[in-house]
Amino acid sequence: MKDLCAKLQIVGADILSVSNDEQRKQKSVQLLAVSKRHPASSIREAFACGQTTFGENYAQEMLEKAEQLSDLAIEWHFIGPLQSNKTRPIAAVADWVHAVDRLKIARRLSDQRPEGLPPLSLCLQVNISEEESKSGVLPHEVSALAKEVALLPNIKLRGLMTIPKAETDFNKQREIFAKLRGLQEELIKEGMQLDTLSMGMSADMPAAIAEGATIVRIGTAIFGTRM
Ligand SMILES: *Cc1c(COP(=O)(O)O)cnc(C)c1O
């Protein structure tokens, strides 16, 4: 318990220190704790330390954990690839979905969002490094998709998300994140109201914050290596 609180504190302090160095506005970078492949009991511990937002990659795993932890006011972010046969339960449980790259999935989430819940917050995943094997919409396709998704009634389009090609060099990492930021700025110029850049993981968090990340998704640095 103490251990997990200490890790959360260290990561939180890192975020704060990089944010200050980069002259980011206070509290403009949010920590999403990525708990995939860690037990629900670890999430409960982290929640007790004050962490309230958690990210999961696998639909079934998130649904099971959400049920086990339904007594806690957790904000659930689904950050993995979403198949159309899992949109219904995810639309009911998630507060955010980060990795949407097809209109079909966004449309199903909107149609299946239960009445009485606020619109589902959504980010479009961009294949920013244009890798053949990666999911995500290509940069030149983002604007058209964003315009259609923004019209869906039960979706609130928040911004863009990416998982870039692994780079160890800080400046190279920055360059890639700068591209995502540029795309978001173009969308804003076209009149869209976006407030989120979901980018940065344990290995590239400082570069992401330097380029304007508003949500960093951190797993290993908090929970350790995955099962
Ligand atoms: C696993 C995962 C993370 C967290 O990665 P770490 O390297 O453990 O910090 C962030 N985002 C996505 C989409 C992931 O799948």
Can you walk through the features of this model?
This protein has nine helices and eight strands. By secondary structure, the protein is α/β, with parallel strands linked by helices. The chain has one domain (2-223): TIM Barrel (Alpha-Beta Barrel). An eight-stranded parallel sheet has the order 7-6-5-4-3-2-1-8. The protein is globular. 41% of the residues are buried. Bound molecules: pyridoxal-5'-phosphate. The site of pyridoxal-5'-phosphate has 13 residues, from strand 8 and helix 9. Pyridoxal-5'-phosphate is lined by residues 34, 36, 57, 79, 163, 201-203, 217-221.
Structure, briefly:
With 227 residues, this protein is of the alpha/beta class.
